[in-house]
Amino acid sequence: MFITRLISGIVLLAIAVSTIIIGGGVWFAVVAALSFIGLFELYRTMGMERSLLGVSGYFLTAIYLTVTWLYIEEGQPMVIVLALMVFFAIYVFTFPRYKLSQISFALTGFLYVPVLMTHMYQIRRMSDGLYLLPLVFVSAWGNDTCAYCVGMLIGKHKMSPKLSPKKSIEGFVGGIAGAVLLGMLYGALLGKNLPSLYYPTAFCGILCGAGALIAVVGDLAASAIKRDTGIKDYGKLIPGHGGVLDRFDSVLFTAPMVYFMAVCLGAV
To answer: N or C: which end of the chain has fewer CB within 10 A?
Structure first.
């Protein structure tokens, strides 16, 4: 299992690095594919992946990705409002075929996967995007690695025993601290490539700290959905890792946080 997981991780890293460097349409295609697959995995947990709700979610995802690619001003919030209208129209005109909980889950899935995932493309499109985007992964996966190490060494107090019994408060603090330090190191080494950030070392630390903090929420949210739906993994697409949502659960929350924080700190 470890070897399989390691090989898969190396392949994923190679694909991510190469497509991020290329950027443009290639990176957009990767983000789009992750959005569709992740949404399919999420809908499958509720058995709606091939239902009218599922098909509507995919269609709305296609529209959202299109307005993002075309960079249509106000396009994204318009599609979000459209999604609300579409799902409630389905609820009304097919009543009582679908329960309100199903409508809510379908809408939440659209917001949770493609809307959050698309921020990875939006970051890459920024002027310093090539060097800002890695901060998403540094804060998400760096936090996860540091939290695991600290938790294994000194973790004693359970943070969320019902959702993730192995996570500790000590690991939580260590993960965020580790992400901040990794971000500052990244800024110190590559700060010259981030001219839009006035103090790259400090600002990269802030970005990674904020990203790491929300990454914990993303990780536990994905675990909560799995507990509620009684599944172990979202899929088997990535050997040793599970599905797209198993690997990108924390990234879904980290990407928009890094994007908004970067904008607030001067990135364009």
So the answer is: N
